[in-house]
Recover the amino acids of this structure.
């Protein structure tokens, strides 16, 4: 598993609590595929905190970028790092989105910073489709210009109506599924509630949907079994998969969602 000391090439705010971190890690970037992630060790937290997983937002010749939100001690400490600092990086990890094998129109559905791997995906898919983005507020809707620069049209929904359509991003998806002459192929990353709603709609309408799950991934290599997910088996029955190693991307029909407590 490649591990390197990656130099911070750029570290800048985006909007609200969101930040963009660009790292010099050419070997990891060259091997990276959309939907995979890296495990980053945050300097200053080594004695008490394990590595943190981050989706790969971009992979270029000299390095890769991640997009994250300041939500706790780890990301607050990460946000304080400046250009020229060095972090320990492991990756690329996991299995990402499929890139070939379907002629269906791709529909990318993202929520919050779950949009990050979808930008990478849009840059690699052989066919363009449409991007549906959702968030609580306007500042939670990210990367619109990234998709537009790649030629992808973008539709937006916010819960408070501060940008785009008022409501959930699944309302935008319903319009596309209801008006489609052929079943599209869905790719989604975001909160569990959104992923479950996308998967339910895909199954009901006969679409394939690839969902990137966001579980608590401790080791990143499948050894600790902290991120298991129950999956359906084709021949019947279920099995437990490791999200960090077998995923994080799974097809919607595989996933067995836990019922609310």
């Amino acid at each position: 598993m490649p591990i390197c000391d990656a130099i911070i090439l750029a570290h800048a705010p985006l909007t609200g609590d969101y930040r963009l971190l660009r790292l010099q890690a050419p070997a990891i970037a060259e091997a990276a595929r959309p939907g995979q992630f890296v495990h980053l060790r945050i300097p200053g937290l080594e004695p008490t905190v394990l590595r943190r997983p981050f989706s790969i937002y971009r992979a270029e010749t000299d390095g890769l970028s991640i997009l994250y939100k300041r939500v706790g001690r780890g990301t607050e400490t990460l946000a304080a790092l400046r250009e020229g600092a060095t972090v320990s990086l492991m990756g690329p990890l996991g299995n990402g989105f499929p890139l070939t094998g379907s002629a269906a129109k791709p529909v990318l559905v993202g929520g919050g910073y779950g949009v990050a791997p979808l930008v990478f995906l849009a840059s690699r898919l052989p066919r363009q489709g449409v991007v549906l983005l959702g968030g609580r507020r306007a500042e939670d809707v990210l990367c619109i210009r990234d998709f537009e620069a790649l030629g992808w049209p973008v539709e937006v929904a916010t819960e408070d109506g501060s940008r785009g359509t008022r409501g959930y991003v699944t309302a935008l998806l319903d319009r596309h599924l209801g008006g489609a002459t052929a079943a599209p192929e869905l790719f989604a990353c975001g909160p569990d509630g959104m992923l479950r709603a996308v998967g339910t709609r895909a199954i009901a309408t006969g679409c394939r949907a690839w969902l990137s799950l966001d579980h608590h991934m401790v080791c990143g290599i499948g050894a600790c079994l902290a991120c298991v997910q129950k999956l359906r088996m084709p021949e019947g029955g279920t099995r437990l998969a490791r999200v960090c190693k077998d995923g994080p991307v799974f097809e919607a029909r595989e996933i067995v969602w836990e019922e609310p407590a």
